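Q: Could you fold this chain for me?
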Amino acid sequence: MWWPRSRASKHYFESVGLLTLLCLVLLVYRAINTHTLRYFFVPENLILAWAGLYFGWLLAEWLKTHPWKSWSSIGLSALWLFFLPNTWYLVTDFIHVYPTGEISELYDIVLMMSVTLVGIILGYTSLYLLHHEFKKRLTPARTFLVIEAVILLSSYAIYLGRVLRWNSWDVVSNPGGLIINVSSSVLDPLGQPHAFSLAGLFFVVLSVTYWALWRGAVALKSL
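A: Sure. Below is the predicted structure, expressed as structure tokens.
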């Protein structure tokens, strides 16, 4: 249960794994040719993004035989929500792309595009898996609200990571500082308008894209 056993799950993980391998090959090729370690934060970010998919898949599998109100399910849900933002966070790594003179800028754009693509796929797949679990237990309206809440929380987490430079490990290593930052922005939203504008931007883009993909997937099934 802790690793995909069904043929469909294995094939899917292998497919996304192939895309991830492509990112790493492009990264290593760049390092060999430029003798620099620029963008070597990418492997860690990819690992965190994969955790977002893994815990989403694990939770969906767990819920097939366990109630959502059980402590184990609640714990897995927390891990899923904790790591999910790391998937879409990869989109913001484009901020590191600029002319360096080390290699063609177009090469770096393609490299980061590949990383971004993996993050988007991991994030939407993870959300898609849990979407089906929400549908089994909630009305369509409540399912919609829960999905939107998850995307909103993830969007705010992306702001915390990219702008305030908090990362997932700070929840354990420096929870006090993180709580202070979050509390100040929530209690005084007018004092940090940038937080809500950036989180709102991600929320709108991620939401519209997800529902477009969801409707497209439903339409494809009926063809």
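A (continued): The mean pLDDT is 88.
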